[in-house]
User: Fold these one by one.
Assistant:
Number 1:
Amino acid sequence: MANQMNQGFNSQFASSRTSRRRFIGGSAAAAAGFALSGSFLAACGSNGTTNSSSSSAPPPDDGKPASGSLRISNWPLYMADGFVAAFQKASGLTVDYKEDFNDNEEWFAKNKDPLSRKQDIGADLVVPTQFMALRLKGLGWLNEISDTRVPNKKNLRPDLLNDPGDPGRKYTAPYMTGMVGLAYNKAATKRDIKTIDDLWDPAFKGKISLLSDMQDGLGMIMQSQGNSVSEPTMDTVQKAVDLVREQKEKGQIRRFTGNDYADDLAAGNIVVAQAYSGDVVQLQADNPDLQFVIPESGGDWFIDTQAIPYTTQNQHAAEAWIDYVYDRANYAKLVAFTQYVPVLSDMTDELNKINPKLATNPLINVPDADKARLHAWAALTDEQTQQFNTAYASVTGS
Amino acid sequence: MAGAASSNRQRSKIAPYLMILPALAYLAIFFVIPFWSLFRTSLSTSGGSVYLPTLTFAWDFANYGQALTAYQDQIIRSLTYAFSATVISLVISYPLAYAIAFKSGRFKNLLLGLVILPFFVTFLVRTLAWKTILADDGVVVHTLGSIGLLPSDGRLLSTSWAVVGGLVYNSMTFMILPLYVSLEKIDPRLLEASKDLYSSSFRAFRKIILPLSIPGVLAGSLLVFIPAMGDFINADYLGSTQTTMIGNVIQKQFLVVKDYPAAAALSFLLMAMILVGVLSYTRALGTEDLV
């Protein structure tokens, strides 16, 4: 019995070092604080002034090397040990590295007012998910990243370079990509999970978790209904929301989660979860029964990107950081820790130097057959994002 | 002489106002102004840009109607959970506070310390610990299952039971301490007198201890009920998709949907319900003067 308890505690803490988005729940507590302070105060002011320019020009380049200090705001557990120190040594810059980016929408709710007034947000470089980065770009709140200051940009995967939302990657520098699929505990399911329909198996009643993020949660469900995430409409989104609502009312869905599904999956409270690939690679180390699968009807990609807010205090230092990250040898160290899919091309050699298992792991070095089943969401208009979020929140938040 | 005396008197008249000034300023800045702007938001219409909406004050009472109809399930659930948590907490805490106040002797301080001890651990961690304790494959569920108290596929985590349990656990100290204070103040000579008059112990409890501890019951109930009504952490971690409370809805509306008027209207509805509950409760217990 004591052993069981220990396992429970261990899994709780083991998973606490796993994943990058898992503090969403914790941040909810903090969010409660600011929801009652800044957010609505700001909301009540007459802050409806939108910066209509679509981008900001970076400060003129004086050609001098970066100096001073750099403040980075990244997701929790998204950094390799010793990486920041190595960068400081190589660049001579001082880095204030904070893991305070917990949730895209909450980050936006907290920072949009200072950003709209062009006030410092305490970070010179942030790592939002692509949809959020493109929203910031659309609001004119991002600085252009200088190509000459980031020569290693040439290492970027060509497919990422030509993103329709940011052609040539002038404003958003991909940091990690990952797959959104299904994770399951094979010891508990006693069978393979292959399709979205498997989620609705009565045997798993109350043991399923879905992601509360609209794109990550609905993407694979829309695809299972024969719809595409690259051309989403209110109808196709609503159809997916209706299915989720039906299953929720049946008691099939236990929770809508951020990264905190990892705890429940490890503890056996959840047997099949919508999940991020990197989390599962790390969880497998503790529990070999855990599997990650891309549903037959398709899963989706997410891309987290480095971006420089127009309130940055040190543009050149931020660019120096991106350039350092884009060095293949440096980047391999990051991938070895985060276990997500590299955004740089030809990483096999560098990954092999660290651990040959990395390069052969299909969740890090994704086979073409799997890639064919993965799709990325279209860049949504502001109105679409709002409508889709509202539709999904009517199920997840009630 | 006369002039000095009158200026002294004047000073003593001003002094109390000066003394409340810091607290008054604090309340004005951090309570009245946000409260007022939240109220205005709740009656505003939202328009313009999606991400930086312009809120126009428009006496839009429809926000309240919509919030009430859309989320009545969550409102009723929050009331039920908060009420249950308060009653359960009272039933568990009263005997404990009684024992500490009257029967603990030299262990009194130790016991009080133990009551407060869990609060040395942060709220979130304590709640997460319950996830481990109540886990589907955990000891508690297995034990209850094996003695037939839970059906074989039954669970505790992610049920209403777990949410109410979490609310009770996280708020019990706030019930125990006021109860203890009111019980501890009771003069033991009153009990001795009742014995001299051949009262039974139960009668002494009913006629002396219970009435004199009502202020503690009242204070404890308010300290448990009010935070429980607006809580969303317990429902988030210990509950399921079927146990969301009004706090979860408000959080989602503020941070994800960003429908500030709806969120503000819900917040006001929540405050109104708490106010009505508190007023009728204090009236029923006949201790208005204590609040």
Number 2:
Amino acid sequence: MFRLSRTFPKRRQVNSGAAGQDTPEWQDLGLSDSLDKNIKMLKDTFANCSDIVFRQFALAQNEDIRLALIYTEGLTDKNQVGDQIMRTLSLELPAVISGERIKKERALELIKQRGLCIHKINETNRMEKVVDAILSGDTVLLVDGHATAIINGSRGWAARAVEDSVIDRLVRGPREAFVETLGTNTSLLRRKIKNPSLKIETTKIGRVTRTDVAVAYIQGIANPKIVEELRRRLAKIDIDGILESGYIEELIEDNPLSPFCTINHTDRVDKVAAFLLEGRVAVMVDGTPNVMSVPALFIELFHNPEDYYQRYIFSSAIRMLRIITFFLTLLTPALYVAFTTYHPELLPTSLLLSVAGQREAVPFPAFVEVLIMELTFEILREAGIRMPQPMGQALSIVGALVIGEAAVRAGMVAPATVIVVAVTGIASFTFCYTATITLRLIRFPLLLISGTLGLYGLGAGLFVLTIHVVGLRSFGVPFLSPLAPLSVEGLKDTAVRAPWWAMFTRPALLGGKNIQRESPGLKPDPPQKRRK
Amino acid sequence: MPPEKINGSQAVLLLVITIFATVILFLPGISASYAGQDAWISLLLAAAAAAVIALTAVSLGRRFPEKNLFEYLEIMLGKIPGKLVGVLYLCWFLYIAAALVREYGTFMIPIFFRQTPLVVLAAAGVAATAYAAYGGLETLARANQLFFPVIVGASAVLFGLALPQMDVVNLLPVLEAGPVSIIKGSLAPLSWFGEIFLISVLLPYLNRPEQARRIALTSILIATSIFELSVIGVISIFGPSVTSSYLLAFLNGVRMIHIANFIERLEALLMLIWILSAGVKLSMFYWATALGSAQVMGLKDYRPLIPPVGAAILALSIFNYTSVMDLLNFTATVWPFYALTFELAIPLFLLAVAAIRKIGGKPPCPGR
């Protein structure tokens, strides 16, 4: 058997072992019971970190019981640290236990029981945990004579407020979208699903950034195999930093070489909640509003949360519209080139005459013409995203007037070509953004092949594309299900959306055991029918 | 390589499209030249005989569960003779694939691509299907689930739009040609129907092998219904004599569509049907050839053989016929006997060998 690997042996992997040089020395240390030693250790760890605050003071009137507060400036709620930790420990506690001498051994217990007005407290004796807590915005309280640190949940930093979604826009439905703070995001999700079965498991990924990554799923609905698989893939990640969910996406996806994205991402809370209810698993990364969910299905590229809030008849119509626009985006330029270049005889006569008349004066072949216009449109689109906001008007004037109007007037392109490009461009915005960028890319090879082999080439290209897409999987689930492999029950939520009283089951192919969504017989009927 | 499995309906759709691809090109012409307006009866006869072929293949396969044609040939006939017969079957598969490429190439050039060399179209087709063959049976079966509604839907649209041109009187009188001509007319369709023998390679991939018989018969039933409609449609548009004079009667039927001065020249739709169905069929035989070659040569994976098999298909598709007339003549006169040898004669012989030598277990019949 041919074995390429034998002829070309793989290059040895770079430092295939774990962590290595990035692991700092404090990783495995424990706390000591001397406050000075602990502070020295922390000060060494945080040498040259001017944003770490060390505040030492004494407990009540007991000068011998020394305390130290360590926190990161700007990551903690100043009022909490001042009022509820320092004030109570040094001023209010003495009023309660006036005159009583506090033994050093009891100090920790007393502080925990009566001294702290903080809602969330943890204890640890590991340096690693202490450092993590300080850097995450918690306040660490060290007590002299105790090898235990109290971690006070006092996080509070400047964060963006919960705002309208940027990616998925809708008319009817909740507006709120995820923000950059993981804690806020999990709370948004919890507010939608008030059930202890909603599990949110947090781990840290990234040797340097130590980013919080949360895996959310509903126990009993999600397929445990998929949850386990996701945990396994996340655990395998060994990278210095995670700055956005995209890092993780590329490290855990099934088909790294495909232009298609087999992981959903959205910043809408309701969309993620709906996904969880269908048995999917969400991955939330601290520092980004984009939440990923797996498994993803191809057909979801045409879905919008609003489809489930609008009446089903209208939603179904809109979905079919999106599927039409999908094919418009993919095929219009290619078909235009194929028909005008190779198969003019296949056009109805009047249409043919009109198109041929326009193209008569154009100096380029149709393929080059369309390619130039498509590229121009891509440039405009990219410029529209990147440029500083005040320039918007200039761009639209240049884009619309110069490129559209003037190019046609000058006889460089045919008006029909402009129509084709405009239709393609506008159509590509009607569905999910992930699909848009994929389609923008695939359009060009299809354009090229129909410019060289006409409709036959286009057919062959679509054949290959279909073969490619049906071969994709997202966490073991075929990307094109429920279309191929076909699941009739699943079809209720594809190109059409069945009314809620008819969608009895969750998508079965996701593999969850518990697939009953609602009890049968929910279809409302008018009162007179109920009479016997 | 994980074991690939396809379910019953996927298998049916694959087999239907496999038969469909060739038949949709040639069918009414060749049968009508023998049987005239009774070509539809020839087709029924062919379907009935094809059922025998399918059942033979299934009962052979059921004696050796989990084994495909090439594997049980060696068990049944011994190592060397088994491999030899296997090679013969491979040549036949290769021939079907190459002939398909040639047929479509040859017919598309005068209609759509007057200046494109045949080898370019053939190479593009082989390249596209190579990707499908590389993807394997499961992928192909799923893709076909998407193609099938498109193919059948487009055919139905064409049929519906051609209805105003049809005149059922063209089918009368029934049985004018006489039984011999009708049987002669059924030979060519039978040989194409007989390509359902491919099921002997698919059997081990069925997730419920006990359905094999039902799958084979359902495929034939669906295919026959589609073809009967098309044949009756075409003959009732043109009448028997004109139909038999056309190389591609379906194409001419589609060209007759003129509605509201706008819905006309729907050849593009026909081309879509052709490309998709030919793509699926070619991929199937490409895959089967590569798989069979790997098994005959004792390789574990068939994928390394995809480029050489593709090259063979491409080369053979250019060399096998000198001209369109050669192709037609061969298809009408030689091909049925060539094909039926492999579709019926050898399998029946094998079945007899198996029965006499008592090899291969009785097919297990769970739930029956």
